[in-house]
């Protein structure tokens, strides 16, 4: 059971960026697709699955966690320019037709896209980061919604990442504790094996499969929001199950 995009969703509870909340709440929107379109000068409908994947993992999340346009540009240039568009044209040939003829041109383009990313698309998020940094400089700490306080010497990235990442994990931990209590109180044979990052790993007793799925969905997406009213966006989970006696390699999404 994996919390879907939990750090993005919890981040929105902190910075309350209107565009980010729209991306989360509107199933027809896609920030990774839109950013891929910006980077490669494409129409949104022309963004391939591969280009979206690399925009997500080598642009959007690195930017959220404090990376800068130069390093992002280097990774994207190395991997994506050899990919092909839906019409079969190489990405490298496409951007050359748009005036980006070398790596240095691409770096400057990414610099402009970084400015658009923070000062247009997610301006509210950027403003929150600046306010958090000013608060830390005055007070010497930052706090989370769960009441945990981070102190000591921290740079700009840590000041803004720690509250979001810590709170996302504590949402998982809160859910794990609630589910464990329910399994025990109901005398169920399903066991929690542990957690990995934003996932809870179960050993499911086959006759309890549907009951466990229902319990987990309720706790991780509904009860947690009733308990913590600062969660202002929907939470979602992804579920993968292996066949009885099967390996993790055989897991399938449901």
Task: List the defining traits of the structure above.
58% helix; mainly alpha; two-stranded antiparallel sheet; 10 helices; 254 residues; 8 strands; 2 domains
Question: Could you explain the architecture of this structure?
Answer:
By secondary structure, the chain is mainly alpha-helical. It has two domains: about 1-15 and about 130-254, Alpha-Beta Plaits; about 20-120, no CATH class. It has ten helices and eight strands. The protein has helices spanning about 5-15, 20-25, 30-40, 50-65, 70-80, 90-95, 105-120, 125-140, 155-185, 210-225; strands at about 1-5, 140-145, 150, 190-195, 200-205, 235-240, 240, 250-254. The strands form four sheets. It has a two-stranded antiparallel sheet. It has a two-stranded antiparallel sheet with strand order 2-3. Strand 4 (about 190-195) and strand 5 form a beta hairpin. Helix 4 (about 50-65) runs antiparallel to helix 5 and helix 7 (about 105-120) crosses helix 8 (about 125-140). It is globular and about 65 Å long.
CATH class of the largest domain: Alpha Beta
* General shape: globular
CATH topology of the largest domain: Alpha-Beta Plaits
What is the beta-strand fraction? 5-15%
Per CATH, the architecture of the largest domain is: 2-Layer Sandwich
Overall pLDDT? 96
The profile of the biggest β sheet is: 2 strands, antiparallel
